[in-house]
Amino acid sequence: MATTKPRTRWIEETFHSDWRVRLKAHRVLHEVKSKHQHLVVFENEEWGTVLLLDGVFQLTTSDEFHYHEMMAHVPLMALERPRDILIIGGGDGGILREVLKHAGVKSATLVDIDREVIDLSLKYFPGVSDGAFDDPRTTVEIADGVAFVADARKKYDAIIVDSSEPIGPSAVLHSEPFFADCQRALKDHGILVAQNGLPFSSPDHLARTTSYFAGLFKSVTPYLVCQPCYFGGSLAINCGTNGVAPGAIDPTTIARRANRRKIVTQLWTPAVHHAAFALPAYVEKTVSAATGQHKRTR
């Protein structure tokens, strides 16, 4: 009797309306519809272990350091003495891992609405958090990030919004009222950074958040990172502060801080830090139009 060859499963990203990307699932490790979202964890021979949330690729173990290092070290290296850090989302623990590389950080609070994301991450890709959840400086809150920030009494040096795309439970993490509450929860010269999508395929996402930030901060300076598994071009990360913009700090100052803190990275360097703020013309046009629109409507 002939044996039936197992059918190859391809996992498809469904976020974009006019195009699709698929990765081969050599082995599905876990799939569940949780209370908050649809999660799939699978193995791919080239990308490693992959996490998909609500049809959007969130993480692969082969390239996760691109995103996590740039989300963490750009704001923290821009601060002379970062002490108290708040992470909204980020249940995989990658940003937490990078934040805790800064020895001067005294507290890192991670707020995620879905405990299952944290548990799955610890089970299937523990190297991403690399022990960060066990660090005594870490506090984990299983809570709605919007409500947590709205009720916050503590002030933070940096707030890092590690959200997925503006769909499902993450949609409110891209809203103006949420960002306004984040701004109120920052120390005087604190920095807010937020994942802002792909400006090539979703310029409206970047424009909308830039306009919100322009109403809240003296300085709004989006920057870019190439994240290979986020198909469709470079990823934008928006950055707002009432202090000195991270891209405007003298390169020698960033290099001095990096040398003093002795942080080991795979992507971030002082040179990459500054280069990330050099925006392509079409992205600069989107940012300029958004800040100009905000000024005209004030």
What is the topology?
Elements: E1 9-13, E2 21-25, E3 27-33, E4 38-44, E5 48-53, E6 56-60, H1 64-77, E7 84-89, H2 94-99, E8 107-112, H3 115-124, H4 126-129, E9 138-142, H5 145-150, E10 156-162, H6 176-184, E11 186-195, H7 203-214, E12 219-220, E13 223-225, E14 235-241, H8 251-261, H9 270-275, H10 281-297
Parallel strand pairs: 7-8, 7-10, 8-9, 10-11
Antiparallel strand pairs: 1-2, 3-4, 4-5, 5-6, 11-14, 12-14, 13-14
Task: Describe the 3D structure.
Helix 7 (203-214) packs across helix 10 (281-297). The strands form three sheets. Strands 7, 8, 9, 10, 11, 12, 13 and 14 form an eight-stranded mixed β-sheet that branches. This protein has helices at residues 64-77, 94-99, 115-124, 126-129, 145-150, 176-184, 203-214, 251-261, 270-275, 281-297, and strands at 9-13, 21-25, 27-33, 38-44, 48-53, 56-60, 84-89, 107-112, 138-142, 156-162, 186-195, 219-220, 223-225, 235-241. It is an alpha/beta fold. It has ten helices and 14 strands. The termini are far apart. The radius of gyration is 19 Å and the shape is globular. The protein is 32% helix and 27% strand.
Keywords:
298 residues; eight-stranded mixed sheet; 32% helix; globular
Structural class: alpha/beta
Please give the oligomerization state of what you see: single chain
Tell me how many strands there are: 14
Rg for CA atoms: 19 Å
Average pLDDT level: 92
Biggest sheet layout: 8 strands, mixed
Distance between the termini: 76 Å
> What is the approximate shape?
globular
Percent strand equals: 25-35%
Low-confidence parts = none
- The helix/strand order is EEEEEEHEHEHHEHEHEHEEEHHH
Number of helices: 10
> Considering DSSP H and I runs of 4 or more, what fraction of the residues is helical?
25-40%
